[in-house]
Amino acid sequence: MKLPSFPPLRPALLVLTLLGGSCQLPGPAPVVPPTPPARVPTAVTVPPPAARPTSPAVPPPAPVPTPALQVIDLWPEGVPGLKPNATPERSTPASASNIHHPTLTVYPAPAGTANGTAVVICPGGGYSNLSMENEGASIARWLNSRGVTAFVLKYRLKEYGQPAPLQDVLRALRTVRSQATAFKVNPDRLGIIGFSAGGHLAACAATLYDDPAGKTGVKLDETSARPDFAMLLYPVITMDPAFFHKGSRDNLIGTNPAPELTALYSTELHVTRTTPPTFLAQAEDDRTVPVENSIQFYLALRKAGVQAELHLYEKGGHGFGLKTNVGRAAEWPLRAEDWMRGHGWLPEVIHL
Amino acid sequence: MNPAPGRFAALLLTLALAGPLLRAADIPRQIPLWPEGVPGMKADTSDETVSGTTYTHTHHPFLLYNAPKAGTANGTAVIFAPGGGYVHVNTGGTGFFQWMLDGGTAVFTLVYRTQDYGHPAPLQDMLRAVRLVRSHAAEWGLAPDRIGAIGNSAGSHVVASAGTLFDAPEGRTGAPLDAVSGRPDFMILTFSVLTMEPPYVHTASRDGLIGRNPSPELAAHFSLEKQVTKATPPAFLVHTMQDTTVREENSIQFYQALVKAGVPAELHLYEKGTHGSGTSASFGQTAQWPLRCADWMRSHGWLNPVSPP
Q1: Structural domain tally of chain A?
Q2: CB within 8 Å of chain B, chain A residues 264-303
Q3: Which of A273, A297, A314, A324 to mutate to test the interface with B (most CBs of B within 10 A)?
Q4: How far apart, in whole angstroms, are the C-alpha atoms of residue B98 and residue A238?
Q5: pLDDT one-digit tens code per residue, A170-216
Q6: CB of B280 less than 8 A from some CB of A
């Protein structure tokens, strides 16, 4: 299935939004955005993706048609550094690439179960594409089943390189936090979860949340972008050639980066005592991203006195997401839930 | 006329017929490790003592057998090396490993020699323990390739020594049992002492094993992260950030070595929990490490009952 795509209208849409008008695309009935946001999000209807099984302890959701999802344009004032003649984004429910207009897709926790915790989800894809289903929508549904409101981030990739992804993720956190009331979430319980290169982006958010590279000089920069907690799954952590993921490094900072860029985006070097509590899980047999990435970030957290939990399994490979046929690694969502509960971000029940 | 010979014959006949039914019950409760004589035993052993569950100045190391829950025996045996900083051995009763017994696994608690002897006595005792259990496996209803080892604190160093230095000459005494492998089939290392080098060394354990001022070679030899090879058995490790007695880096460095050597290993590092068994409910998720460990053992098939021959 494809998104309804109106590329020639996008520039016009931006202009109209800048003029302060409320604009809705013709076609299917538009979704009413939450009120009262200062800036009006663009309303685009998205056909709901196919239901997938979630973590082992959760029965597959019943095939009830879900309401259309709200998609928020992260830069209504204009994407910083937007490339001229940007070609259309390539998008399927499973994967997205060639991103020029980063967005957040909102998955509200079902009414009655919502506990006020929110999580921004950063799918992986080596800063080349985005695994929007396996590391996006399905993660959102799992979090929803735990009463957490989720936001799937579609961030800019290799077409831009740094600092665009960092700008996008920090803008996403600031957007949710500044509109917490409208989203019915607690601004002090806003976490981030990232997978693979999305784990690198989440680690950047956890360490570089105040960095000038993530600011564009607007008032919203004053809203804190610091996640209250971070969950990193088989994450890319470093740009150090000793154990980097070359594709992610090349796509983010180039094939021959200046030492300062390598250092800036080696997140293990920027952990301080204000870095948020972090949960990490990875498989020893990961041939894509060495498990040393998780270990180095954990060691940095430990050295800085930051609370962290680390689970490393023998098998699972890379990119296991919510797959259930990966042996012991498939238990990670239960461990993540236990960890969130231990910190008070989920109600108190411990899985056995 | 003395009726005893007739009754004795009747007893023998009963035992002969019932023998096969008594397999697990044949395992003695207390098993001396060195019936032929403890290697290098000191002349004066009068200070050997036990107070509660703490064994000090052990000169006659032994195993204490703990049977699995009735009807659940799976054929797996685990040798438990308790902690005690290489000063003494504190077995702490059965609390630490009750979950293993409940899951059908036999546990042999090892009371090993400590600072009175220093190296290589603890290694010799642990290797002898594995060799002894393995040599009796068929008779005791155990699988000879499912003999694991679990350690706590300094006991982990004992376990991991056997897992890495199982072929070291100092682990042999020339006895016939040396021909039986002393390598555990798997290792469970909890709140572990594993290195003997600064900055993460637990100095009290180092003092007890190799003295206050060991040569660099000796310290390196017993820094087990340096002794890992691809022959090291699969391992499960657990530690916590809050352990200020034995630093977590012991476990992390050892795990890094396992990864480098391609040895399958599972690592859980939790936030809460002071040094010890880690099972206090106040430690939150940490207290569930035995469940994770059982899951790990199960994933390797060690909790499946061994098919009868």
Answers
A1: 1
A2: 277, 284, 291-292, 295, 298-299, 302
A3: A314
A4: 42
A5: 999 999 999 999 999 999 999 999 999 999 999 999 999 999 999 99
A6: no
Contact: A352, B291; criterion CB under 8 Å: yes
* Overall average pLDDT of the B240-268 stretch: 98
- For residue B68 the two structure tokens come to 């699995």
ipTM for the complex shown: 0.92
Point out the residue among A295, A311, A328 whose CB comes nearest to the CB of B252.
Answer: A295
Phi, psi of B91 (to 5 degrees): -75, -25
* Nearest beta carbon to residue B259 from set A284, A335, A350: A284
Q: Where are the domains of chain B?
A: 6-32+53-300
Residue A268 counted as domain residue: yes
Nearest CA in chain A to B238: A311
Contacts of A350 in chain B (CB under 8 A): 284-285, 288
Residue positions counted in chain B: 309
The amino acid at A16? L
pLDDT along chain A (352 residues), means of 10: 41 42 39 39 42 52 71 98 95 96 97 94 98 98 97 98 98 98 97 98 98 97 98 98 97 98 98 98 98 98 98 98 97 98 82 52
Contacting residues for A305 by C-beta, under 8 A, at least 6 apart: A273
A172 part of a folded domain: yes
Fold of B6-32+53-300: Rossmann fold (3.40.50)
Question: Which position has the higher pLDDT, B48 or B13?
Answer: B48
Contact assignment for B256 to A307 by CB distance below 8 Å: no
Q: Looking at the complex, does the CB of residue A314 fall below 8 Å from at least one CB of chain B?
A: yes
CB burial of B145-171 (b: ≥16 within 10 Å; e: otherwise) equals ebbbbbbbbbbbbbbbbbbbbbebeeb
* pLDDT for A340: 97
Question: CB contact, 8 Å: A51 with chain B?
Answer: no
Encoded amino acid at B35, one letter? P
**Cβ of A310 under 8 Å from any chain B Cβ?**
yes
Give the three-state DSSP class for A114: coil
- CATH number for the domain harbouring residue A243: 3.40.50.1820
CA distance A323 to B98: 33
Nearest to B201 by CA among B253, B123, B124, B263: B253
